[in-house]
Amino acid sequence: MPVLPELEPIVAEIREHLEDDDYVLPAQRWRDPGSNLTKADRAKHPSSAQALNHLVKRVAARAGISGNVHPHTLRHAFGDYVARASGDIRTAQFLMGHATVSTTEAYLGEPTLDELTDSVKGLRFAKTVERMFSPVAKALTNPVEATTGIEPV
To answer: 66-121: per-residue pLDDT in tens?
Structure first.
């Protein structure tokens, strides 16, 4: 899985402390079910979808993100980031495992004005050249109104 350079030390630390078959976000169970004071990690079992959802919401709140964030929002953000960073929606499609580009397109946001401006930077308007087969339209001296086909006869 691709990782941002800023996160490489964190990934290295996680890999150093976990076995190959351990989950990074393991299931947690109460160690003492009668009083429920201490939770224990079950490293070989994945976290539940509900626990993962709560974790993502807590982390988003700590980061000051006020929107409705859930795990799938992170997937959308990843796809949008890859497509914008690489400038290639096909790269995002393959990294996300989508069969078609249209599925990936649903994940992407609208381009910003800066992105649109950057995409045409350096382009120039072509000079108008009068040619035999594509003449420049000249103003008619005596314009004639076109018929609509429904005039009285």
So the answer is: 888 999 988 888 888 888 888 788 999 999 899 999 999 888 888 889 888 888 88
Cβ count within 10 A of residue 92: 23
DSSP 137: P
The gap from C-alpha 123 to its chain's centroid, in whole angstroms, comes to: 27
Residue 42 β-bridge partners: 27
pTM tops 0.85, yes or no: no
In what helix (H) or strand (E) does residue 81 lie, and over which residues does it extend? Answer: helix 71-86
Scan for tokens 């076109």, then name that residue: 146
- Smallest CA-to-CA distance from 76 within 107, 97, 49, 45 is with 107
Helix axes 89-96, 71-86, angle to 10 degrees: 140
| Average pLDDT of the residues in 43-62 | 90
CA-CA distances (angstroms) from residue 68 to 53, 54, 57, 62, 134?
A: 11, 12, 8, 13, 55
Residue 153 has pLDDT above 60, yes or no: no
